[in-house]
UniProtKB/TrEMBL annotation:
Record GO terms (molecular function): isomerase activity
Protein name, UniProt field: Sugar phosphate isomerase/epimerase
Pfam family, one: AP_endonuc_2
Domain of life of the source: Bacteria
Stretches assigned to the Xylose isomerase-like TIM barrel domain: 113-360
Compositionally biased residues, Basic and acidic residues: 57-70
Lineage, opening ranks: Bacteria, Pseudomonadati, Verrucomicrobiota, Verrucomicrobiia, Verrucomicrobiales
Length: 368
C-alpha cells in the first residue's frame, strides 16, 4: 500500500489537537437508521396543488382526457426538481450555491428565501444544522427540505461538515469502534444526501481526522481509507460522490494539500471518492491556487469559494480572476459554493456580496 506524502510543515508542528473523545463508557446506542428509513411512497414528494398551480388555471373540462398516474405524480413538482435529476448544468457552465449554516438557527424557509433572492441556484447543507442528532435524519426530513427548497427554485446540491455531530466520531484514531461508527454514519448520510437529490458529500471535519504524535501515520491512513471506502461503496448506489477536502495546517495535521488529497483518493481506489478544492485551504499551500486547480483537474468535483479572512469571495485579499480563469481552462462545470466562517455582517449581506463579485468576474472574462 502506498504512503501519503508527509507535509513539510508537520515535522515542526506542535501537536495541540484534542484527542478524539470515545463514546461515554461505550454505553450510548448508535442511533443510526437502516436503509428502510429512506423509503417513502412517491406521493410523499407531491406538493399541494396550490403551491404549484397558478390562480388563473382553468379546471379540467368534461371532454378533457383524465391524467395518467404518472402525470398526477409529476405535474405538481417544481421544474427545478426535475432539473436536479440531471448532473449537468442547463445554462451557465458554473452555477452558484451557498452553505446553509451561515444562517445559524434561522428557519429553513428563511435560508431559502434569502439565497434565492440573492440569485443562488443551490444550497449545500450541514447535517448538524438540521437535527440535534443528525444520525436520525431520514427520508421524511429529506422530503420536507426538498419541497421547501424547490418552492424557492433551489436545488439541494449535497452535504458538508459531515462529522461535526456526534463529536466523538473519528476516521484515523486507533479505535475500531469509533472508525466503524464513522463509517456507518457516513453511509446514513450518503442515503440522506441521495434522498435530497444531492450529488456530493464534502469530507472535511478536521477534528474527526486529526492525528496524535504517537499514532503511526501510515496505519492511520489505512484506517481512514477503510472508513471512506465503506462510505463510497454506499454513496455510489445513491448517485453521490465523496469529495475529500484538504485543509490547512491551522485546522488539521492530516491531508493539508491537494496533492495529499489525490494520493488518498488513489488509496481508496473507488470511483465515488474524489477531491474537493477550497480557496481558503489552498491559500495555505505554497503553490499558487491556479496551479493547484490545473494539477487537480482529473480529480476535483466540487469547489468552495471564500477567503483566508474567513469571509466570502471578493471580501479579502484573494483575487478571483486567475482562479475563475483556471477553472474555465480545465473545463470545470460544477458548483461554485460559498462557505464562510465569520457571520457578523449578516448572512444575506455576505451572500449578496459574494455572488455579485463572482458574477462580475465571470462576466468580465466572458467578454474578454
Amino acid at each position: 500500500m502506498g504512503r501519503l506524502p508527509r507535509s513539510p510543515s508537520l515535522s515542526n508542528m506542535k501537536h495541540t489537537f484534542p484527542r478524539p473523545s470515545p463514546r461515554s463508557s461505550r454505553r450510548e446506542e448508535a442511533l443510526l437508521l437502516p436503509p428502510s428509513a429512506f423509503r417513502l411512497p412517491p406521493s410523499a414528494f407531491r406538493l399541494p396543488p396550490s403551491d404549484c398551480q397558478t390562480k388563473n388555471q382553468e379546471p379540467r373540462t368534461k371532454n378533457q382526457e383524465p391524467r395518467t398516474k404518472n402525470q398526477e405524480l409529476l405535474s405538481p413538482l417544481p421544474i427545478t426538481f426535475l432539473f436536479s435529476l440531471f448532473p449537468f448544468p442547463l445554462s451557465n457552465p458554473m452555477r452558484f450555491a451557498i452553505c446553509n449554516e451561515h444562517w445559524g438557527n434561522a428557519p429553513f424557509e428563511k435560508v431559502c428565501e434569502d439565497a434565492a433572492a440573492c440569485g443562488y441556484q443551490g444550497l449545500e447543507l450541514a447535517p448538524f444544522t438540521l437535527k440535534a442528532d443528525p444520525r436520525t435524519l431520514d427520508l421524511a426530513d429529506a422530503t420536507r427540505l426538498v419541497r421547501i427548497a424547490n418552492s424557492f427554485g433551489l436545488e439541494i446540491i449535497g452535504l458538508h461538515w459531515l462529522l461535526t455531530k456526534p463529536a466523538w466520531l473519528h476516521i484515523t484514531a486507533p479505535d475500531p469502534l469509533l472508525n466503524n461508527d464513522a463509517k456507518i454514519f457516513g453511509q446514513t448520510l450518503a442515503r440522506f444526501c441521495g434522498a435530497l437529490g444531492g450529488k456530493v458529500m464534502v469530507w472535511g471535519s478536521p477534528k474527526a481526522r486529526n492525528l496524535l504524535p504517537e499514532w503511526d501515520r501510515n496505519e492511520a491512513n489505512l484506517r481512514a481509507v477503510d472508513v471512506v471506502r465503506g462510505v463510497a461503496e454506499e454513496a455510489v448506489k445513491h448517485g453521490v460522490t465523496i469529495a475529500m477536502e484538504p485543509l490547512g495546517p491551522k485546522e488539521t495535521n492530516w491531508m493539508n494539500s491537494a496533492a495529499e488529497g489525490i494520493e488518498f483518493c488513489k488509496l481508496v481506489d473507488h470511483p465515488a471518492c474524489k477531491l474537493h478544492l477550497d480557496v481558503k485551504a489552498m491559500s495555505a499551500e505554497d503553490k499558487p491556487i491556479p496551479d493547484i486547480i490545473r494539477d487537480s483537474k482529473e480529480w476535483f468535483v466540487h469547489f468552495h469559494t471564500n477567503d483566508p479572512n474567513l469571509l466570502g469571495p471578493g471580501m479579502g485579499e484573494v483575487k478571483y480572476e486567475p482562479i475563475i480563469a483556471a477553472l474555465n481552462e480545465v473545463g470545470y462545470t460544477g458548483w461554485l459554493s460559498t462557505e464562510v466562517f465569520k457571520y457578523e455582517l449578516g448572512p444575506k449581506v455576505i451572500a449578496q456580496r459574494s455572488i455579485d463579485y463572482l458574477k462580475q468576474i465571470i462576466a468580465s472574462q466572458a467578454k474578454a
